[in-house]
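Changelog note: in this version the structure field was regenerated for every chain. One regenerated record is shown below for reference.
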Amino acid sequence: MDYVKPAEVVSSMIDAGTRKAALPVRDLLIRGALSGGLLGIATSLAITAAVQTNLPIVGALIFPVGFVMIVLLGLELVTGSFALLPMAQMDGASGWREVFRNWAWVFVGNLAGSLLYALLLWASLTMFGEVAGGAVADRIVAIAEAKTIAYAAHGDAGWGTAFVKAVLCNWMVCMGVVMGMVSTSTVAKIVAAWLPITIFFAHGYEHAVVNMFLIPAGMLLGAKTTIGQWWMWNQIPVTLGNLAGGFFFTALALYLTYRVRAATIRSGEPAAQTAT
């Protein structure tokens, strides 16, 4: 049987968070940049599919390919670290200094990789600005404006909506991290991780790293938004919402309900209670 029980998954999450907390800055930046680029590629693939088929659900079904590559390669995605690193801290395996260090450098790496891919996509769609980008570019522009100008038009309610959508998003994204650990089979890992990622994308929830690509790409392609609007009305509330969703709905919730069994698994002692 390749199924991994929930308490063992929690133990694996703590171990993963501990390893990530100890990674050198070079690795955090390189792995973070690769993750940003891969997620950007998956996003543009999903948009292309939605434009070609006129069925947004098709884009949602294929978007998880980027997340799966990140998980299988053990790369760094700050939204996943919002769950894994606090679990290591709660277990006493790392301190808050290491947690914030990881988050900061991975965020920078994710941003760098996302911006690089946004620039490359702009170049490929427009022949370095010589031609119009076509239907895919138009869709990216519309999405970028919807994620910034549309929120700004509603003031505090818009900011709060971006935050709530981000909470819901990273609940599912972190569940993707969890589901990727429920099996030792590569195929099963892919299928299990695919499910919650499809859910978040199909709902149109807000993901900080996806937006690091989408909004700058939209701006390069002609979106009428500014850098200030990007950060004020999307990147800041979405990052905070992703943090809240990953921490409260994944890290804290799973740690509180499975910490006793996870501790006995890590120590090699007989379990004191039965997992459901």
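Spot check on this record: The CA atoms of residues 33 and 113 lie 4 Å apart. The two ends are 18 Å apart (CA to CA).
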